[in-house]
Amino acid sequence: MVLACLEKENVDVVFGFPGGAVLTLYDEIYKMGKRHILTRHEQGAAHAADGYARVTGKPGVVIATSGPGATNLVTGIATAYMDSVPLVAITGQVATPFIGTDAFQEADITGITLPITKHNYLVKDIGELPWILKEAFFIANTGRKGPVLIDLPKDIQAQEGEFDYPDRLEISTYKPIYEGHLGQIARACTAVKEAKKPLIYAGGGVASSGAHEEMLAFSQKTRIPVTTTLMGMGSIPYEYELFLGMPGMHGTYAANNAINEADLLLAMGVRFDDRVTGKLDTFAPNAQIIHIDIDPAEIGKNVLADIPIVGDVKRVLAEMLKRVQPGDTEMWCKKVVDWKKNYPLRYRQESNNCLKPQFVIEELCRLTAGEAIVTTDVGQHQMWAAQYYRLKSPRRLISSGGLGTMGFGLPAAIGAQVAFPEKVVLCIAGDGSFQMNSQELATAVKYDLPVKIAIINNQYLGMVRQWQKLFYGGRYSHTNLAGGPDFVRLAEAYGARGFRVASPGEVEETVKIALNTPGPVVIDFQVDPEEDVMPMVAPNTSIVEMIGGEER
Amino acid sequence: MKRILAILVEDRPGVLTRVSGLFSRRGYNIKNIAVGPTMEPGISRMTVTVEADPLTVEQIVKQLNKLVNVLKVNDLTDETSVERELMLIKVKAEPGRRSEIQQVAATFRAKIIDISPDSMIIEVTGEEQKLQAFLLMMQEFGIKEIVSTGSVSLLRGSKVTRELRA
Ligand SMILES: Cc1ncc(C[n+]2csc(CCOP(=O)(O)OP(=O)(O)O)c2C)c(N)n1
Ligand SMILES: [Mg+2]
User: What is the ipTM of this complex?
Assistant: First the structure.
């Protein structure tokens, strides 16, 4: 029955891990020959489904057994929830008569995931299953997207029921708003026309609604510069003249100063996260704020909007494009472009000195023509990937932004590669993070997924070390990872290829070899352990109080 | 500031947990909560009293609206509405003081619903302030135990909550 529903939803692949409470479901998978990717840990399956969803825009599906299988999904579900990724998780549950008795492998997974799902269900009757599955996919992939969990007791899986799949669905209590209010749109257009220093601040909502073309057209027509958050990276081509880079804690001088000076901020599909805003009451102090978001609760949550527009960014922008007239922004554009030129992101790679992580990423970008699907783990390397991998299109930087989940990169790369077998999928991993899900190398090898894994090996939990250096008097409490595994041999043990690069001269050749090697490849880049991510804004200070990032 | 929210929810398992969980994890303080059926089968009504500033209340309402089982949320505070809470109070009542207690109760239109040799149970309904005033009077005799329903509230006039603009 579940499988029949998945067919109806055009699910072409599921990720998962079996167990006692999903034996029947797995038997169906076996009999129907459904494409299923077996990971080595349920967390890996959840991140893989998430990665698949982020690159395709279709909901990812993950299956796990009851109890420990289900709880192993939790980090993956929370990761998807924070980044508004459509995910449908199906967990086995003990048979209904045993629920609530602390039965073997029982865990109240609907209770546990209540705060990290958009919605969840415990199926109590086989007759409910078709509409619950239909609703689950609908809720996961509409409005502000997010994970939905279905907990399916073992006895119910085994029941036969009439299969009556609803074609359409009307949930009276769930009605996302897509069209922006025309009056508000008109007000926004007037504000744009009058503004002298407008700025677009765009986030994950732009990619998620597929509004990148409208946004570029809007920026070109109105001559308004753009900054994108980590989640919005790629929504505007990196090389676009009015693109200022990322704002916030590790943002560029140009982006942060533009926010500070702007008289109009067009916030699109963003949630004013503290990593972007710094100290809230110093954020965009001079700006009127237009906030476009599909989730009404985001508007006014952290920052009050002068012109709130609830709606789908793509539709709202399309509507605005019809009406908007450009204001006079040439002076402003010149100013921000000068900032961009005079205060670029910088590092220094001496030709024969130790390898700089930023150089590695720039080379990876160059050698993949900026067209790889890049997944990351969490830490310094993630920020460098965002800063130095010059993306051309959206849905190409796959990173855990909201939850900041170490160990996300490899399984997400697996999901992305399953979705696009022909594309180059590059996982920019941290040496610490990689070890949180390195078992998924087995999955990549088993399914012959040619993911290329670049471990930015600084022998440290580098991002934490950086904070210890700057804010904790250099007391490096438990952040040194030296002596860790030999990643080349680890790769080989799994049946993947492994390379090591320790000097700048070796980068190009090794990356080229790796890209031309079929199957999964690990490159252990032994980089300068002392390197910090710059510029940096100390937490809870104004984003123009930046450390590093001096004038060129 | 005290606000009263009327929340219409689908009568599904776990819906109370979903609502109360939302309040606790986002750090909103529930002063009291009352749940009961409505005239429509399958729909329950929760009345939640919170202590929060207007911006927080706006955020609470938006977050509640995102819950899939929530049909409608209304802030009844600024509407003209009637509010009632029912309280049962077990108070010490030696035979010599019974008539005194009866007098106070009569003034508050409270009902004595049980008498034992040394105590009484009194039922009182009203708005929070009235109940507070009554409790204060009863303290003099010695309160042994209280229980209350939490407040419930309806709009005055013919308007019903479902018709209000969200
Ligand atoms: C699961 C998890 N645990 C802890 C953290 C806290 N944390 C954030 S960055 C970081 C260091 C990551 O080290 P590494 O993967 O080597 O990346 P680097 O910063 O060195 O590039 C840690 C421990 C986290 N984000 N996720
Ligand atoms: Mg590291």
Answer: 0.91
